[in-house]
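Cross-check.
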Amino acid sequence: MQILVTGGAGFIGSHLVRALLARGEKVTVLDELNDYYPPAWKRANLERLRAYKPFEFVQGDIRDLPLCERLFRDGRFSAIVHLAARAGVRPSLAEPILYEEVNCRGTLNLLECARTTGVERFVFASSSSVYGCSKAVPFREDDPAAGPASPYGATKRAGEIYCATYTHLYGLPTLCLRFFTVYGPGQRPDMAIHKFTRLIDTGKPLPFFGDGTSRRDYTWVDDIEQGLLNSLTATYTHEIVNLGESHTTTLLDLVRMIEEGLGKKAVLERLPEQPGDVPTTYADISKARSLLGYNPTTPIDQGLERFVRWYRDTGRAWWER
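Predicted model, tokenized:
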């Protein structure tokens, strides 16, 4: 199978690419290497992948339609895993136009290239952010997801709708995977678990929004990887599927567990709740189990123990890049 992974130099992407290479797949990575977080981290991911097995890397922007057209024409891809995006809820409030350009126009470019070159399946990385402040928990895929609470969430919902349209019009099989707060080795530094671990370890104030009762469904990256790999062999026309752990953890408990792992106390900087944040994310994963054979195996306590171990052994050095 010839597979294109957009955003393959990033956190989730590099984990997936390594797993695909281990299976003997031919992989092309398309990544802009933008500066949302240090590009050196992404280059380090690519170096580790190259040391593992050869693959093709193309540095480029998914908004660049001529580049995408050339890449698809030459690559003859059978499957696309589209992970590239402008990520993050709070930054999207400051730059909504950028998020629309990358996450909507970029996705549309890739869908159009997939349509014209006969790609057999298109896997789109969506987000639990599409559910907004839904009070119906756990979140189910048949929720209309009509009220995302941030531009980021809105762009991800738009990407899902584009996928459905391309399936309807052109018969392109599309699968939209709604990720729930993915963490693990190499996690983006702006994400809560990595950020909190770093701040507690260095004794710096930790921005603590609200009263600590907000809950998140934290998902270990290897479990997400399992869902992504299975999405390349499952049978579907167009589907939307949650990928989470189906267990929630409060902000207070998250900080407590990281403190215990590090053996250090957090210095909390109490702040009001932020626009765009939602009180709860909680995945119903029954559809993922039936359609993809998805079976997450890493609960948050075990995952945090592994993450803190990675941070101590490797993660601290990343900040020196």
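The mean pLDDT is 96. The first strand starts at residue 2 and ends at 6. Passed to J.P. for a second look.
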